[in-house]
Every structure is written in structure tokens, then in C-alpha cells.
């Protein structure tokens, strides 16, 4: 492995200073490129010994050349996924040249990816050096959006749009901000701006369809049909157009046509993937085996008395956004939305995947990881609210770790009719990370795996997990709001009972529903498609009777 240089403690490798950057000569760049080609060849041959040896030789050969460390960092990060070494190389490069813009940009991106502090400072420094760098503006705006700081994010993006008025990415992101901030008319206008610049933007078509009701076959529908049928368009743009058409024809109550296009959107996703489905059943068995009662008892010996985190989890489309809207309307709670830091921290803790990575770490290390997560989550609360929600649905996999090491954290498990849940997931068109979501039978089988994991957690942690059923919540809202707040040791506030009036941002697919008093339209929506759902029913099996 490449030897890491000793790193001095500092808050950030970036600071305000005059530019001192020196350009690397073309001759030197050519030499570095030739040495990197040797690395690529060794990697292609599977010769990791040569990769590691030559990486160290490159550092020794170019000790004062930041570009060499940059190229190595990109190689180790992009080709081998070693973010730790990439960060070290980029930080070392910035010690040699604090104004190396590619290093600053990529370091900021990796910091975001692995939930480390310092990303805003990287992009701010780039903008000091290159005030018209729109890529830095967009990435800095994304760091603001994570904190729901829409005003600063919007200001940056409007500046970027003036500097680069034909950049679709800027307008797409600006539309996302308006959508999350419930400025629907502004969002619609912004997505239409994208379509004037790039008529084949499937994502703009799809989002516009999502936030715009259709009353007839209009120009938007005709444009999406043309894009879907365009063999020269990218598969992703065609997929997005198909999903947009699925929603449009649902609006028009042409449910057969709607289901056809939803199915096409999912088919196109499957066609673009190079791998088969993960073995979800084996993963469930591993989780249940590792998180035995004996192991959980060991973890509990390192538990923290932290009370602040409120986990709202379950299958996607099961009511998690609604429950978070209720809890986050309380004056003592900040709603952080879906905060993926815990998954990222587990992923980056070592070479193994979850749950094996947990088993490979000491109990002390697992406890430290959870405390690190809580510090990052707490930092998102702008006014220092003592409670912060994380409504990442798939964190149901991590309940064993959470409940054992943070026993005072609140865990709310959202459930819903499995048919409604799965149909809603299928129609959402989740990306490739949700492989199960694009095939009805596999979706039903995945749902059964999820139920098995939840049964295991309830057996291990009786009384720590509150189940909230979506249908029951909608039928008796006030009773369930009080039950949820009581579980969180919070007094009832009128704002929680009138959660739909909250001005907080919502950055999930349910952003429209949670702004309504009680959203009942989706309760039996799956029945409109029942004749197409036999594969789902086969996958769900006994789940249909539980």
C-alpha cells in the first residue's frame, strides 16, 4: 500500500490567501501521464503489487509536484474506491499548492460523499480563485441545501445562471430548491427553462409531470411520448419520460396506459444495469445471525445516553415523510430529512459490507461510529434543537446497532398495506441502488425480507420501536399524533396536529402529500392496477395475510 505521510491536525487544508499557484510544465505532465498509464495497465492485469509499488514510486519521483498526487488520488478513488488514500493524497497536494483548483474541487466532492467537514471551504476557495467557476457555485449550493439554507443556495445558483445561462444542471438544481421549498410555480417555470435548453431532458420532463396535474393529453404528454420513442435519446432520458407518462396517464385515469409506462420505465432501468439482483435473503440471514442476543448484550455495555436522534424508518413509500412532518413540526425538533451519514460511515469503516463490517469492528469502534454520526446529524439543526429526525427509510437494517448503542434514541417504524407500499415504490422509479424496486415479483420478495428483519428487531428490543401504520394514522390522526409524540417524550403542540401548515422544506417524493391535512388518495390506489399485479402478489406470498 502507498505510504501515507504524517498528517498535522488542522480544521481544513483550505484557507483564504493570495494565489501562489505555479503551472506544471507540459513535459512534466506528459511524464506523469506515462507513469499513470503503467498503473492502469497493472490494474487491468490484476497486479495489485505493481499498482501499490508504482504508486509509491510516483510520489517519490515527483515529491514537489501536486499534479502527480492529484492523478494518483483520482486513480485510487475512481478505480479502487479508496477514499481515505484519495483524501490524504489531495490534502498533501494542497500543502504543496493550496490553489490547485482540481484538488480543491475533488476534495470537496469526496468530503461530501463521505460526510466529512470542509467541503464548503474547498468550493469557497475555488471561487476566490475563479469567481466565475459555475461548477464550484453549484457544488457549494448543494452544501447549503443539505442544511435547508435555500436562500444562499438560490442566490449562488442565480449567479451561476447569469455566468452560464445555457447550463441545464444549474436550472435543474434551482428547480429542485423551489420544489423542496414549496414554490411550485417557480419550480415549474424553472424546469420548463431546462426544456427550452434541452428538450430531451428526461428528468425535467418527469419532475414537471410530477408537480403538474394533467387534465387532457397536452403538449407535455406529447413531448414525453416523442422522447420515450426516440431511439437516439439516452436510455435514462427515455426512462424518465416513461415514468413521467405513467404519472400523466394516472392523472387522466387511463390506468392501463399508466401501468404500461411505469413498467417501461422500470424495464429500461433493468436494461441499463450490468449486474443481477443482490441476494437479499442471504443479507437478512447475516443480519439476524450477527445481531444475536449475545452480541447485542455486548454492544449494550458501550451504550450512550444520547437522547437526541429520532429515527423514522421502514419501507420507502410507507408514510415516513408524513410522520417526520408531524414530529418536525414540534418546536424542540429539527427535521433533517434523509441523512445518509450512518450508511456512509459504515461503508467507509473498512473493506467489508454491512453487516459483516459491524462484526469486524470492536464494540468501542461501533459506539464511536454512532457518536460520530450523531454529531453530524446534530450539526444540521440550525437553532440547536435538542432532537433531530433522520427519516432514511432503509435504516431499518441498522436498528440493531442503533437500539443497542443509542437506547434512548427514538425509533418509529412506519408500516402500510404491503400492496400499496410496493405499487408506490414501483411507480416511483427508484434508481439502481434500489434494484428490487424495478421488478414486481422481486419487490414482493424484498418486502418479505424486510418483514423478517423487523420481526427480529422487535424480539431483541421489545418496547423500543413504535410501529405506526399509515392507514390507521390517516383514519385517526389526532390519536396517532399524540402516540408518536408520547413515544418521543414530547408534549403535544398544536403545530404537530396541523403539520400540513409547516413551512419546513421537504426533499422527498412525498413533498406534496405532506402539505395536505390528511392524504387519503393513496390508501387504495393500488386497486386501480390490480389486474397487473399478480407477480407482486406471488412475491409477497404470506405477507398478504399478515
Features:
546 residues; mainly alpha; 5-stranded parallel beta sheet; 27 helices; 5 strands; 4% strand
Walk me through this protein's architecture.
With 546 residues, the protein is mainly α. The protein is 58% helix and 4% strand. It contains 27 helices and 5 strands. Strands 2-3-1-4-5 form a 5-stranded parallel sheet, with helices on both faces. Mean pLDDT is 91; it is low at 1-10.
Give the secondary structure arrangement, pairings included:
Layout: H1 26-44, H2 48-61, H3 66-78, H4 83-96, H5 101-113, H6 119-129, H7 134-146, H8 150-163, H9 168-180, H10 184-197, H11 202-211, H12 219-229, H13 235-251, H14 255-272, H15 280-290, H16 293-300, E1 309-314, H17 320-328, E2 333-335, H18 341-347, H19 356-360, H20 363-378, E3 387-390, H21 399-405, E4 410-415, H22 418-428, H23 440-460, E5 465-469, H24 470-475, H25 477-487, H26 494-497, H27 534-540
Parallel strand pairs: 1-3, 1-4, 2-3, 4-5
Amino acid at each position: 500500500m502507498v505510504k501515507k505521510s504524517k498528517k498535522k491536525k488542522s480544521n481544513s487544508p483550505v484557507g483564504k490567501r493570495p494565489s501562489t499557484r505555479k503551472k506544471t510544465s507540459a513535459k512534466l505532465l506528459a511524464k506523469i501521464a506515462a507513469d499513470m498509464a503503467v498503473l492502469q495497465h497493472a490494474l487491468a492485469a490484476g497486479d495489485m503489487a505493481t499498482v501499490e509499488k508504482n504508486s509509491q514510486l510516483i510520489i517519490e519521483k515527483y515529491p514537489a509536484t501536486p499534479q502527480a498526487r492529484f492523478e494518483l488520488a483520482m486513480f485510487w478513488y475512481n478505480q479502487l474506491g479508496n477514499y481515505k488514500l484519495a483524501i490524504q493524497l489531495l490534502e498533501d497536494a494542497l500543502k504543496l499548492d493550496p490553489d490547485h483548483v482540481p484538488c480543491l474541487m475533488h476534495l470537496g466532492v469526496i468530503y461530501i460523499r463521505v460526510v466529512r467537514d470542509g467541503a464548503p471551504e474547498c468550493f469557497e476557495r475555488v471561487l476566490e480563485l475563479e469567481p466565475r467557476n459555475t461548477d464550484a457555485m453549484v457544488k457549494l449550493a448543494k452544501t447549503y441545501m443539505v442544511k435547508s439554507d435555500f436562500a444562499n443556495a438560490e442566490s449562488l445558483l442565480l449567479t451561476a445562471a447569469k455566468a452560464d445561462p445555457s447550463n441545464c444542471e444549474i436550472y435543474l438544481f434551482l428547480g429542485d430548491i423551489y420544489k423542496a421549498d414549496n414554490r411550485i410555480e417557480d419550480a415549474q417555470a424553472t424546469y420548463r427553462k431546462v426544456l427550452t435548453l434541452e428538450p430531451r431532458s428526461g428528468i425535467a420532463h418527469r419532475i414537471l409531470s410530477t408537480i403538474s396535474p394533467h387534465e387532457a393529453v397536452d403538449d407535455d404528454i406529447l413531448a414525453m411520448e416523442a422522447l420515450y420513442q426516440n431511439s437516439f435519446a439516452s436510455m435514462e432520458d427515455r426512462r424518465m419520460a416513461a415514468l413521467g407518462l405513467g404519472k400523466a396517464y394516472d392523472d387522466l385515469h387511463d390506468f392501463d396506459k399508466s401501468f404500461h409506462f411505469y413498467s417501461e420505465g422500470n424495464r429500461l432501468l433493468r436494461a441499463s444495469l450490468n449486474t443481477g439482483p443482490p441476494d437479499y435473503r442471504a443479507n437478512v440471514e447475516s443480519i439476524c445471525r450477527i445481531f444475536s442476543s449475545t452480541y447485542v448484550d455486548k454492544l449494550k455495555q458501550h451504550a450512550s445516553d444520547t437522547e437526541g436522534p429520532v429515527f423514522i424508518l421502514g419501507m420507502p413509500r410507507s408514510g415516513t415523510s408524513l410522520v417526520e412532518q408531524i414530529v418536525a413540526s414540534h418546536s424542540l425538533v429539527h427535521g433533517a430529512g434523509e441523512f445518509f451519514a450512518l450508511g456512509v460511515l459504515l461503508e467507509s469503516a473498512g473493506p467489508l459490507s454491512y453487516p459483516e463490517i459491524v462484526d469486524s469492528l470492536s464494540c468501542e469502534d461501533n459506539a464511536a461510529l454512532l457518536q460520530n454520526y450523531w454529531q453530524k446529524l446534530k450539526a444540521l439543526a440550525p437553532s440547536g434543537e435538542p432532537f433531530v429526525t433522520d427519516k432514511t427509510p432503509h435504516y431499518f437494517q441498522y436498528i440493531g446497532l442503533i437500539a443497542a448503542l443509542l437506547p434512548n434514541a427514538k425509533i418509529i417504524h412506519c408500516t402500510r398495506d404491503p400492496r400499496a407500499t410496493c405499487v408506490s415504490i414501483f411507480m416511483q422509479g427508484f434508481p439502481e441502488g434500489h434494484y428490487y424496486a424495478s421488478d414486481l415479483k422481486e419487490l414482493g420478495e424484498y418486502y418479505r425480507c424486510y418483514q423478517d428483519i423487523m420481526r427480529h428487531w422487535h424480539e431483541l428490543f421489545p418496547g423500543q420501536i413504535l410501529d405506526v401504520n399509515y392507514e390507521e394514522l390517516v383514519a385517526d390522526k389526532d390519536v396517532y399524533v399524540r402516540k408518536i409524540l408520547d413515544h418521543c417524550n414530547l408534549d403535544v403542540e398544536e403545530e404537530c396536529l396541523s403539520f400540513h401548515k409547516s413551512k419546513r422544506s421537504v426533499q422527498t417524493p412525498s413533498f406534496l402529500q405532506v402539505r395536505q391535512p390528511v392524504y387519503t388518495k393513496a390508501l387504495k390506489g393500488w386497486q386501480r392496477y390490480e389486474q397487473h399485479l399478480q407477480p407482486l402478489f406471488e412475491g409477497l406470498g404470506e405477507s398478504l395475510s399478515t
